[in-house]
């Protein structure tokens, strides 16, 4: 559980916020998740979420915020849940390079198969875009901060000079988001081996000389 707890803490820390810790907020986010998975973002309103959660519209606004805040909170909660899984999947691998490659494979597979995130990306990519880009997406900033922290830890563990890993982390997150939003590409990424080959050929060089 340590890897999961650490991953969630890093992701929350990147935003300067914590997951909802009270039952009512969780109830609202559970309702929002079900609403968005069933009807998508375009056809969902705060009133819909409030009805599904069996609370008032005012309660939703006080606990979470407007519709954009609901979407962001739902996405961030899902990301917190799977970064721990990714950490656990790569923790036993011997090198930073191995962990990066397998982490990229795990993230791409998880998001593609995720019933909420993957479904919305397939059905409403144009609406999901603002929630995954730097200008208006706290999830983007959170994932960039999470990956930067992981790269910083790798620098220390490998005894390499410590440099700011944020630009590299941003490039990696942007590359991942672009493939998720628009899978049409000259790169074959249809299975895990193809994704591994891409990561070795194009992501590992971003780390610089070994």
Automatic annotation (TrEMBL):
Occurrences of domain HTH tetR-type (ranges): 22-82
DNA-binding stretch(es), residue numbering of this chain: 45-64
Alphabetical list of InterPro entries matching this protein: AlkX_C (IPR040611), Homeodomain-like_sf (IPR009057), HTH-type_TetR-like_transc_reg (IPR050109), HTH_TetR (IPR001647)
Database matches in Gene3D superfamilies: Tetracycline Repressor, domain 2
UniProt keyword list: DNA-binding
Highest taxon of source: Bacteria
Cleaved signal peptide residues: none
PANTHER family: HTH-TYPE TRANSCRIPTIONAL REGULATOR RUTR, HTH-TYPE TRANSCRIPTIONAL REPRESSOR RV3405C
Name listed for the protein in its UniProt record: TetR/AcrR family transcriptional regulator
